[in-house]
């Protein structure tokens, strides 16, 4: 099924802008490994322009257009964005799937979450108005104290590829609800749906500069944002290695950061469980999002009295997972997002083997045409 891939530029100051150095990055469909389009690649030069646009958005009309508008005004935009995304769900879900490889049913669920998230923060933005200037009682009558909630300023939002539009929304929606102006830096591996958010912002007439979208390489666009003197805060989701770089850059200006990173998620199975249920949840935890989820149950600790039976059923379940083109009905496992990630996974398998692990199922490409998929169950005897 051919999906039209929109050709977009950077989204800066409410409009599309060609990257100043005219750089672009190919979009590779991980299922077919074909180049199906390209995305603009921002560099430090574009980051400067976008940061300036965001600062102007905060101060325009003395802040009354955005930063110091009522929460109800901002909520109106958030709801309008949610409505447009709901309208476009079928197209956005397909675009997400061809861009990052997750099964279509999961991309559809992500789009529902995106809509829900914008609506949720619209409610919170409205709720802010009643909380403004809440008095705080003090023992001394000569002083008055109030709580005033103000946006922190310009925020840089740097996100990964496994939930491209959803991870972006988790950051964009609260930032906008609070009255910040934002610069979103999607992952170079999956930026297509984040760029469509730019088109949605245009259609709902979001004030110019309130949201800017700058795809690009991490060390170029991402690093320039992290170290920019006029970015007030950074929110990052991704790997720990990158987080260290971002935190180091932010520390030079004592800039606050919020980090959501990866880890190793163990699932612990006791001897008194319903084995089939426990197997089902282990499989879900491990293979959802093609196994590329921060909360993946990537470490399994099973009580030894049920281990043999548990592993046996785990393998049987694994054999029944439908591995296919993620656009295909019923697909449960699509391709790994990129060649780089595929190689990382294969390295994990090879390291596990050399440390004495037994591969119970998979561990190789399941079909020749299907370049990058890998299903594995392993039991480490170490
Ligand atoms: N905790 C969570 O909620 C959560 C959610 C999703 C993913 N993750 C984690 O994300 C990781 C996978 O994502 P990834 O491979 O895209 O991570 P990554 O750290 O390689 O990249 C994340 C983002 O950071 C950017 N980046 C890379 N180098 C940079 C630099 N020097 N300065 C600034 N930005 C830079 C990338 O371009 C991308 O946009 C996994 O570890 C996963 O567990 C965590
Ligand atoms: N449901 C989204 C979880 C994000 C982590 O990868």
TrEMBL record:
**Which superkingdom?**
Eukaryota
Q: EC number(s)?
A: 1.2.1.19
- Ranges for domain Aldehyde dehydrogenase come to 23-365
Which pathway does the record list? Amine and polyamine biosynthesis; betaine biosynthesis via choline pathway; betaine from betaine aldehyde: step 1/1
Q: Which reaction does it catalyse?
A: 4-aminobutanal + NAD(+) + H2O = 4-aminobutanoate + NADH + 2 H(+); 3-aminopropanal + NAD(+) + H2O = beta-alanine + NADH + 2 H(+)
> Which keywords label this protein?
NAD, Oxidoreductase, Sodium
Q: How would you classify this enzyme at the top EC level? A: oxidoreductase
| InterPro entries listed in its UniProt record | Ald_DH/histidinol_DH, Ald_DH_C, Ald_DH_CS_CYS, Ald_DH_N, Aldehyde_DH_dom
GO terms (molecular function) for this protein are:
aminobutyraldehyde dehydrogenase (NAD+) activity
Q: Which GO terms describe its biological process?
A: cellular detoxification of aldehyde
Key word DNA repair present: no
Family membership noted in the UniProt record: Belongs to the aldehyde dehydrogenase family.
- Classification via PANTHER family: BETAINE ALDEHYDE DEHYDROGENASE, BETAINE ALDEHYDE DEHYDROGENASE-RELATED
Record-given protein name: aminobutyraldehyde dehydrogenase
Q: Which organism is it from?
A: Gossypium raimondii (Peruvian cotton)
